[in-house]
Amino acid sequence: MVLARYGDSTASEDAKLLGESIQMPFSGRVAKSRFLKGENSLKAMSERMASWDPQDLSKRGIPSDDLVGLYERWGQAGYGIILTGNVMVHPEQLEAPGNPILYAPHETPERMEQFRKMAAAGKADGSLMIMQVSHPGRQVAALVNPNPVGASDIQLADRMGMSFGKPTPLDKSGIREIVNQFAYTAEAAYRTGFDGVQLHGAHGYLIAQFLSQTTNNRTDEYGGSIENRSRIIKEITEAIRVKVPDRKFVIGIKVNSVEFQAKGFQPEEAAELCKQLEAMEIDFIELSGGTYEEFGFKHSDTGPRESTLKREAFFTVFAQQITPRLHKTVVYVTGGFRSTSAMAEAVRLGTCAGVGLGRPAGSDPLLPNDIIQRNVTGATDMKIPPHEFGLGLLATGVQMEAIARGKPVIDLSDPKELTRFTEAAQSYHQQKAEDMKKGVFDPRFFYLPSANRELNLL
Q1: What is the C-alpha separation between 308 and 363, in angstroms, rounded?
Q2: At what angle do helices 231-243 and 172-191 cross, to 10 degrees?
């Protein structure tokens, strides 16, 4: 069993509350529990298990059998909604190599069949399988694309070991092209059996670049007021509904509740945006926060603020300013939830209708069912220091590699296992650096067998 977990106990009323279903207000679809498998950081749930070719764009982004296996396991976990990691709308516009891609000129029977398998795996036990659709805008590594596009020409400084090209501001023709790409990807998701899509409008990606005044200095109808800055969302949503007229197809969105930057997206703007999203008949909004420039998830060099630790979820304080403005659209909050009691408290207080789990989906593959059945008090208490942000992201990637193989995940609440993982991570980074010098790049995370065979809960 896991050495250490968050929480002291799981009250029956908490388990019952979190196990309740949620009906989407506009599609009418039902999420069987209040749990959403999401992401709680900029790259934490980017699986990087799709095909990658440095030269042939048409060979990029086909989901692997391992990726199908990963969602097969999560499909057994009791989530109401399972979100994929980033599925990109263009093979040159990637969050990371190894992203799945749906792009009309590269549609093939093989690609569509792998997406079909992925959807079927995730929804086999009744979860809603929702594809997260994304475009990085300026936030694409120069290694992948040195000539990005963006809302404006504001360049992203080097971050997280990556450099970024200066973006070319999108003209209206370019915006229309991207709107059509989002619509195609959503329609392809529908054809391959997904229950809906989530537009990625957070964490500094393209939609977020339009929303934030730190990255949008436009003077046309896509800049200035929040209504103008959100225009691209309205256009994408309308285009999707033309391509997919079935109103049972769920449309959700992930947005920042706050960016933690001067002139960055703030809760008051987020609240106004969310009212507009409800008017667009968006089924659910997942609130998160931060960008590549300001992560938001750590708040300081040593870790979250004390009040955040007590509250657990990083963004609940901002969600409390947003949720009361909405009457129909369902709100999820993702980022920091670890104990059953904190999850239930957020729902009970009306902060959110459901809770998103990012890294706990890696450390505890079956966590929702385990909580609902009162088998655990919360997620594994991984002992990675809060300021070791990159190490935490890598840990999630390594755990996903194990889950995809149907193997036990490494228990990082165990100091011995943490030491073993840290040493393996150092070797991994050294090897990647050597490979890069040779022009070799493998996007996959590494697999580290668990020393505790009893942890195999799959």
Answers
A1: 21
A2: 40
Q: Could you tell me the two tokens for 231? A: 């225009």
End-to-end Cα, the chain, rounded Å: 13
For the segment 192-221, what is each residue's pLDDT rounded down to a tens digit?
999 999 999 998 999 999 999 999 999 999
Contacts of 388 (CB under 8 A, 6+ apart): none
| CB neighbourhood size of 319 (10 A) | 30
Q: If 0-12 CB within 10 Å is exposed, 13-18 middle and 19+ buried, where does residue 261 land?
A: middle
Mean pLDDT within 408-412: 97
Give the burial class of 143: count Cβ atoms within 10 A of its Cβ; 0-12 exposed, 13-18 middle, 19 or more buried.
middle
Tokens of 203: 């964490």
Cβ neighbours around 446 below 10 Å, total = 15
Residue 215 maps to a domain: yes
In a domain, 434, yes or no: no
**Residue 448: inside a domain:** no
- Answer whether residue 266 shows pLDDT above 90: no
Among 251, 259, 257, CA closest to 274: 257
pLDDT tens for residues 445-454?
A: 999 999 875 4
For the record, the structure tokens of 50 come out as 């799709």
DSSP string, 318-330: HHHHHGGG-SSSE
455 within a domain of the structure (yes/no): no
Rg of the chain over Cα atoms, rounded to whole angstroms, equals 20
More confident residue, 437 or 415: 415
Domain boundaries, position 127: 12-377
Judge contact between 232 and 150, C-beta under 8 A: no
Number of domains in the chain: 1
Which CATH number characterizes residue 267's domain? 3.20.20.70
The reported pTM is 0.94
CA 309 and chain centroid, separation = 22
Taking only the tens place, the pLDDT of each residue in 112-163 is: 999 999 999 999 999 999 999 999 999 999 989 999 999 999 999 997 778 9
Q: What is the pLDDT of residue 331?
A: 98
